[in-house]
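ESCALATION

Customer reports they have been waiting on this structure for their group meeting. Please prioritize. Original submission:
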Amino acid sequence: MRMILLGPPGAGKGTLAARLAESLSILHLASGDILRSEIRQASDLGKTVQQYLDSGQLAPDDIVVQVMVSRLSQPDCAGGYILDGFPRTLPQAQALDASLAEVESKIDLVIYMDVKVEVIISRLAGRRICPVCNASYHVENIPPLVPGKCDRDEAKLQRRPDDNPQVIRTRLQQYHRLTQPLLDYYAGQGRFYRLDGNQQIDEIYQQAQEILSKVVSSADRR
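Update from on-call: job pushed to the front of the queue and completed.
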């Protein structure tokens, strides 16, 4: 199974992707983690990405696609994967499809987590991040075992500076402006599903499992 999980910042993509990846025994590939890995390795692509970040810019579509396609070409991706945070734009989606077609592969499923703005603001305001391993927590919904410390490495958890209501609203406006053409693109291909991301993670996970069952059943009938 090769799938894409889409949703605005704070939708809970990482949490859902991790659970689905474990249940399906496939990789969870978060674009942010992959980009940071390239930077740490000081690869040519990583150095290019770092140059854009240092200047306060987002890496352009062609660079992001190169990094992601390079990762997807590695042997451990042959068994399937969930893409989290990529693609973000229509050109990225089109480039991804073209690259996969060259190796006679394709994305099987795209799920979009539809979440209300106020729900996202509530979630992000309580989010805490580990600066060492990048693990994500929430002061109410996903608290660490020891308050204020990461379960994995005991690092002091931090609140991202952009996790305040006004900044969140601006980020969401930008996200929806860039993402709507992407949603239309996948919806037109018959492999696109929406789920209600306003619920708790167990209910969201159950919705995702029902979607997966439909996709698998449809594939078996063909």
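Sent to customer with the following note: The chain has eight helices and seven strands.
Escalation resolved.
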